[in-house]
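Closing statement on the iron/sulfur cluster sub-project.
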Amino acid sequence: MQYLPNIIFALALAFGLGFFVMNIRKLIRNINLGKDVNRKDKKPERLKNMIKIALGQSKMVKRPLSGFLHIIVYVGFIIINIEVLEIIIDGLFGSHRIFQEVLGDGFYAFLIGFFEILAALVFVAVVIFWLRRNVSNIKRFLSKEMKGWPKKDGNNILYFEMVLMTLFLVMNATDVHFQQAGIGNPISQFITPLFDGFSAEGLHTIERTCWWIHILGILVFLNYLYYSKHLHILLAFPNTYFANLNAKGQFTNLDSVTTEVKLMMDPDADPYAAPPEGEEEAIPEKFGASDVADLSWVQLMNAYTCTECGRCTSVCPANLTGKELSPRKIMMDTRDRLEEVGRNIDANKGVFVDDGKQLLNDYISPEELWACTSCNACVEECPVNIDPLSIIMDMRRYLVMEESAAPQELNMMMTNIENNGAPWQYNQQDRLNWANEE
Ligand code: SF4
Ligand code: SF4
């Protein structure tokens, strides 16, 4: 019976980590449903991007208040987790504050004191975040795609953080030996008086309860990530590493179309010639994207990485002028459809069974797609290098090349280019007539 708590702890840890690994495998499987795209080049540049943007949070601070608060929460999240390591060792081996023994009083006091200050700062930052989301009228948190689960999810994480930080501080405040030693308790010493009058046994019970809820809460948080926009905590790193490094606005030409155009321009080419041997497969079975499996794995990873911050939508000229388009919604829809496809595969023993739905029309309308000015502002603004424009372009490509479903104005322009070599309705010979007009 003496080892019962250790056994329960080991089981909870194994269950929590096992479930987490299962969800991560599902995540990787879903991302791999995307088409291959080569992002193995320019490794030093990719690494630099990841260190600067994901680790250094360089794009977050473009908006100083939210950027600064986010850095506090981010640093707190990473550093306070060192303390979780101590909890795990204590839980498995039945020790108490094992790092104090190993590191010595001085360094341990510095470490825990630092954690306490961070925990208090994280708590304050999280409260400000909550007020910004729920009380202030910040437009990007009020858009229609932020109703329902996205709003709840954003708040849930904030509540999680508040509770975890409080538990950590109360746990320290009710640890009689820790408080008596008077080291590493710059914040918890002010909470201790709240428990004046409690017996030593009562304090011990509160301390143990906080300890257990704290670690179980962390395991629940870990598993909640998969169902939340907070997956960016993990995915921001690969997402910034594998981001597109080409100049913004560079179009991804299809090899098969380039070959076709070259053939058209070559007067000696035989238009009926079969493609050279081995190049038959270069002709894609489908042009553009109408569903998630037509997108690349990087675009699908983008969708899972989206933090739903809405910075992209807040600078989107189409959205600002009242059009249907919101680049954040493009990413959320892509993720939701991908999740739906993943659940379909799970329910059908690893095979996707056509559900009569697709990303186009069932999630994203042509109206949204054609509202985009392709200005790249969303890509520039995204704090984790997500590229909503690339998805819009691939879906437009499908509409034009597979469905001939471009808006009337575009169809006219394309016909003019085909007939007149220019977007206007004039014959090439008449182009300079304006110079002779009175
Ligand atoms: S590229 Fe399109 S979606 Fe992105 S900001 Fe510009 S108009 Fe909006
Ligand atoms: S795409 Fe980027 S900027 Fe837009 S909501 Fe997602 S994380 Fe924020």
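The chain has a mean pLDDT of 92. With this model delivered, the sub-project is considered complete and its resources will be redirected to Aim 3.
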